[in-house]
Amino acid sequence: MQYLLMIYSNEADEAKLAPGAEAELMAAYGAYAGAMAQAGVMVGGERLHPTSAAASVRVRSGKTEVLNGPYAETHEQLGGYFMIDVPDLEAALHWAARCPTAPYGTIEVRPIWAM
Amino acid sequence: MSTITTTTTAEAAAAAAARHSYGKLIAWLSARTRDVAAAEDALSEAFAAALADWPRQGVPASPEAWLLTVARRRLVDAHRQRRQHDGVADTLLLLMDEAVDGHARREIPDDRLALMFACAHPAIDAGVRAPLMLQVILGFDAAAIGSAFLVPPSTMGQRLVRAKARIRQAALPFAVPSLAELAEPGGADRLAAVLDAVYACYAEGWTDAAGTDAQHRNLADEALWLGGLLASLMPEMPEALGLLALMLHSHARRHARRDDTGRYVPLAEQDTALWDHTMIRQAERLLHRASALALGGAGGGPHRVGRYQLEAAVQSAHAVRRLSGRADWPAIERLYAALARLSDSPVLVLNRAVALAETQGPAAALALLDSVAPDARLADYQPWWAARADLLRRQGCMAEARAAYQRAIGLATDPAVRAFLLQRLAQSEGAG
To answer: pTM score, two decimals?
Structure first.
């Protein structure tokens, strides 16, 4: 089963991290992605630019609308994702708990709808 | 002069009754009906009634008997509403009379041990035994249990419902096996299943050993409570005493496991002054009593030196460092060798290798590790990679050590452990 791990955290707080703490977080993410690759569960994953770089598009009554910013203003923002392939939801939750952001942010785990 | 019982007092009394009596009341009710779920519903209604009634009427002389009487009445009502003329309601009515007559004078019999044996019955899936005990003995809800075992609350809820239905449908016995039954083939496994479930609660509690998550009650404390209950209800069972000794030894070090900045401190580097010496003495006394029972008794069956006594002895050999300045590594190595004869778990091999590194050096330890390295159970096991990294570093294999540290960091869940490993990795990079 494939699962999407969506990594939410407070961008403003993360931007205030001391350089040493940020380097440590990046090192932890490198190791996390490496461990998933070596365990053979990694399908893909990327870090996203902050929501200030986001634009949202929708079509209403045949007209396009383009808005600045993310789909919804939330306390925590989507900052990145991993796609993993594991036997079941429990295994996916175990990987989510290992995410370096999990101790202060939230990892939403969603099964991929297989077509 | 008026005696006003405030809501707060009533709530506090209900909360105290819940904590002290919950499992006892559930055990009493379900041992007589085999219907754990119905007992839970009835008891929760009784607690709600207490919160409504006690502030007005005053807290009864025996809150436990009051709750039991109300809960039983609810059970009878529930059965009548379902029009189940299967005799259960009549039985319950008889039981109610027994309660009304008896509880003013008598203690409510303690059936919790029987309930624990029902929860850990071979017919109950091994993975749900510990969650089931947490729910029926301690009153944890599915959300809290699910969080502790990393399972969605809805899934955990379904598993618990299924397990309770199994107890009822398969008519699992609510009884403590006799000494003779425990001595039969497979009998020792019945006791081991109960002990394993309690230890599983403790092990899950370790993941939040600092108790930093106020939302969830500290599972390690609750497991210690269950272990104390088991040891007090089965004082002649060496393994029950061994389990409690093991958990107490481990718990005695809870304040030494983090430094001032919240970073993880490995056992060998802990400041022994921060250990709880009273708790260690308590563990030592239990372990001595267990050995006297196991070695002085008839031997065999339930009276033998088992896993938990051996693991408690390992912790005891670590604890001597507070007196001698050095853990008794040769003893630890021998104990893990003995444990490895009881189970094929590669974790035991890992622990033996760590002891071997102290007695014979890292090369011997790494050779032992290599003998079980292909085991698939180790691929995601963080302590394996952390220990391997440490041994490789001591052997001077820095590139391999760094790769193992990376793997351990990626598998860490506890931020304190992750921070510690990142620091070790940085140090090994400095060393070239």
So the answer is: 0.86
CB contacts, 8 Å: B406 with chain A = 30-31, 34-35
Average of per-residue pLDDT across B312-319: 97
Q: How many CB atoms lie within 10 A of CB B317?
A: 20
Rounded to whole angstroms, the Cα distance separating B230 from B284 reads 17
A22 CB near a chain B CB, below 8 Å?
no
Closest alpha carbon to B312 in B365, B367, B239: B239
Output DSSP code: residue B214.
T
Contact (Cβ atoms closer than 8 angstroms) between residue B289 and residue B242: no
B159-162: long-range contacts at Cβ-Cβ below 8 A with a sequence spacing of 24 or more?
B159/B125, B159/B127, B159/B128, B159/B131, B160/B128, B160/B131, B160/B132, B160/B135, B161/B37, B162/B128
What type of residue is B179? Answer: L
Nearest CA in chain A to B412: A98
Establish how many alpha carbons lie within 13 A of residue B271's alpha carbon, considering only the half-sphere containing its beta carbon. Answer: 8
Cβ-proximal residues to B36 (8 Å cutoff; 6+ apart), any chain = B26, B30, B115, B136, B164, B167, B168
CB A20 within 8 A of CB A27: no
Residue A82 touches chain B, beta carbons under 8 Å: no
Q: How far apart are CA B81 and CA B73, in angstroms?
A: 12
Residues of B in contact with A24 (CB under 8 A): 419, 422
pLDDT digits (tens, 9 = 90+) for A61-101: 999 999 998 988 889 999 999 999 999 999 999 999 999 99
Residue B171 in contact with residue B34, Cβ under 8 Å?
A: yes
Quickly count helices (H) and strands (E) in chain A: 3, 6
Residues 269-308, chain B, touching A (beta carbon < 8 A)? none
Contact A89 B419 (CB under 8 A): no
ipTM for this prediction: 0.90
Q: Do B422 and A39 touch (CB under 8 A)?
A: no
